[in-house]
Design goal:
Helices cover 82% and strands 0% of the residues. The chain has helices spanning 3-16, 18-24, 26-35, 39-59, 70-92, 94-100, 107-122, 124-145. Helix 4 runs antiparallel to helix 5.
Length: 146
C-alpha cells in the first residue's frame, strides 16, 4: 500500500466516471482518452490485485491489534483499497475477466457472475467517486502513518 495504490485508485475512479471527469477538466479528458485503449487490461490487472489484497489482509488480521487504533485504521484502509480495486477492476476489465477467468466455468457460475456484474455496473459512478476520494485518503494516510 502507498502512494502508488492511491494513484491507481484515483485513475480507476476516473475511468469509472469518464463523463463526470470530462465535464470538470478538458485536460483530464485528454489524458483519459489516451488511457481508454488500455482500460480493459488495467481493469483486469487491478481486479486480480484486489483479490490478492483482500486475501492478504484477511490472512493478516493480527495487524488490527498492533498499535490500536492505528493498526485498525491501517487494516481497514487496506481492506477498502482491496474491495474498491476488486469492484472497479471488475467494471473496467469485465470483457477480459469473461475471456480468461470465466471461459471454462460452468453455465451456472457464468450466470451468477453476469448477475453480480449487473449489480456492480449499476453503481459504477458511485464506485468511481469513492475510489477517487479513497485514493486521496490512501496517499495522505501513507504520508501520515508510515
Amino acid at each position: 500500500m502507498g502512494i502508488v495504490d492511491g494513484l491507481v485508485l484515483i485513475l480507476l475512479g476516473a475511468l469509472c466516471i469518464p463523463s463526470l471527469v470530462a465535464q470538470k477538466s478538458p485536460n483530464a479528458k485528454a489524458l483519459l482518452d489516451k488511457v481508454v485503449p488500455f482500460q480493459g487490461i488495467f481493469g483486469f490487472v487491478v481486479f486480480i490485485w484486489g483479490i490478492w489484497v483482500i486475501i492478504q489482509i484477511i490472512l493478516n488480521l493480527g495487524w488490527i491489534g498492533l498499535v490500536f487504533p492505528l493498526g485498525l485504521i491501517f487494516w481497514l484502509t487496506i481492506l477498502v483499497d482491496g474491495i474498491l480495486s476488486l469492484l472497479g477492476g471488475a467494471i473496467l476489465g469485465w470483457s477480459l475477466i469473461q475471456q480468461h477467468l470465466l471461459e471454462k466455468a460452468p453455465d451456472n457460475i457464468k450466470a451468477k457472475a453476469e448477475a453480480t456484474f449487473e449489480k456492480i455496473i449499476a453503481v459504477q459512478p458511485k464506485i468511481g467517486i469513492i475510489a477517487i476520494i479513497f485514493g486521496i485518503w490512501v496517499i495522505i494516510s501513507d504520508i501520515i502513518l508510515i
